[in-house]
Amino acid sequence: MAEDLGDGSTAEMDEYETLMSTTDVELLKTAWRNEKAAPEILQFQALLVKRAREQIQLVEETVEEFEGSGMDPLTVSLYQMDLDRAQFLLRSYLRVRLQKVTANSLSCVLQIEKYMFYIWKNDNLRNRLSEPEKIFVKRCINDMEKHIEETVLSKLPDNYQSARRQSIISEEDDMVPEPQLDTFVACKSSKNFVSIRLVDSERPLEMERHDVSFVLYKVIEDKIGVEIDLV
Q1: Averaged over 184-189, what is the pLDDT?
Q2: Cα distance between residue 95 and residue 26, in whole Å
Q3: Ranges of each domain in the chain
Q4: Is 180-231 CATH 3.40.5.60?
Q5: pTM value?
């Protein structure tokens, strides 16, 4: 009998953890952690962001209504805490994505920090961006091209003017920085059982739910957000 109770308790706990992990706030937290830990840009979570914005707007209206109606301050503060948490996660998620594709400075023509040229040339990666991100990155690239043209290329001697016809995003990739997919990352299984085929190993890595391992990013990149989350 005790054994049955134990099994039932375990099953209920698994159901509870699954329910908690699928709330939008938890999904947004997971998306933020995955994006922050991944060396390359991941697929933009459009539907999740849309739901989060709608929920934030709803809670903002609720807080304003409670404050205007003289609701108990403790209740209002609890709603405000949830609102602040959701806003922080959403801003952090969007910010870490922009930091991967643009400059971490006041002007995107200064000191490019990450991989916007590499992403823009790669159809698969470019399609992972949201429409506002695509517009922003394209504007940064145009500003960079204009900056290079005005400060460098236009001042070259006549016999080097052919260089002006070459775009800063040319077909040559040797000077375009790329994300390092051979880096090790810490990952956690989000499923009851996950099998990962490792490089130079005949035996796969087998992980149960919540197991944490260090593996090469390129080995699990297609499993992120599906069977694996980064930590």
Answers
A1: 94
A2: 18
A3: 10-101, 103-178, 180-231
A4: yes
A5: 0.75
